Amino acid sequence: MKRIPALALAAGLLAALSAGGAIAEGIGYVDMQQVLQESELGKAAQARLDERFGDRQQPFAEEEMAIRRLQQNLERDKPLMSRAQVEKKEQEIKERIEKFEKQATELQKELVQAQQEEGAKILPAAREAVDDVAEKRKLTIVFEASQGNILYLDEDADITSAVIAAMDKASK
Predict the structure, then answer these.
(1) Which of 25, 29, 33, 23 is nearest to 130 (CA)?
(2) How, if at all, do strands 27-30 and 141-144 pair?
(3) What residue ranges do the domains of the chain occupy?
C-alpha cells in the first residue's frame, strides 16, 4: 500500500474544497485579543485589573525615573568625582536597580496571573459567541487570527466584531 504524503493530501483537499467555493464561505477567523479588549466582559475585566493594580504600578514608574536621574547625575558629575566616590555611587545605583527589578518582577508575575484568571472567566462566553456566529454563518472552521502561520486573511472572513456583539448581547 502506497502512502500519500500529508502535504499532497492537504493540497488535494484544498483544491477540492476550493473548486466548490467552500473555502471562501466555510472559513472564518476571529481576533481574540480584540474580543478581550473591546467586549463588555473584556472591558469589565480590564477595569477590575486597573482597580487592583493601577495604584501599585505608579511607585514603579516614579522609582524608574529616580534611578534614571541618578544615572544622569553620575554621568554629569563623574569627571569631578574621585574614583572611590564614583564606585560608591555606581554600587548604590546598582543595588537600587536590583531591588527595583525584583519588586517589579513580583508585581508583573502577579499581574500576569490576574490577567490569566480574568481571561479564563471570559473565555467560555467568547467560545459560545464564536460557536454562535460560526453556526449562523455556516462556517466549518474558525481560526484565531494571531495564531499559526497564516499569511493572508480576507477581511470578509473576519467574524471578530460579530463575536464581540454576540458576547455583549449575551452578557446583558
Answers:
(1) 29
(2) parallel
(3) 24-171
- Provide the b/e sequence for 108-132 (b: ≥16 CB within 10 Å): eeeeeeeeeebeeebeebbeebbeb
- CATH T-level assignment (fold) for domain 24-171: Protein Binding, DinI Protein; Chain A (3.30.910)
Q: How far apart are CA 165 and CA 172, in angstroms?
A: 11
Say how far apart CA 134 and CA 6 lie, in whole Å: 27
d(CA 87, CA 43): 49
65: Cβ contacts below 8 Å, ≥ 6 apart? none
80 DSSP assignment? G
Question: d(Cα 171, Cα 41) in Å, to the nearest integer?
Answer: 7
Going by C-alpha positions, the residue among 46, 39, 45 that lies closest to residue 129 is 39
One digit per residue, the tens of pLDDT, for the chain of length 172 reads 334 344 333 334 344 344 444 444 688 888 888 888 899 999 999 999 989 888 888 888 899 999 999 999 999 999 999 999 999 999 999 999 999 999 989 999 999 999 999 989 998 999 899 998 888 988 888 888 777 666 565 677 778 888 899 888 888 7
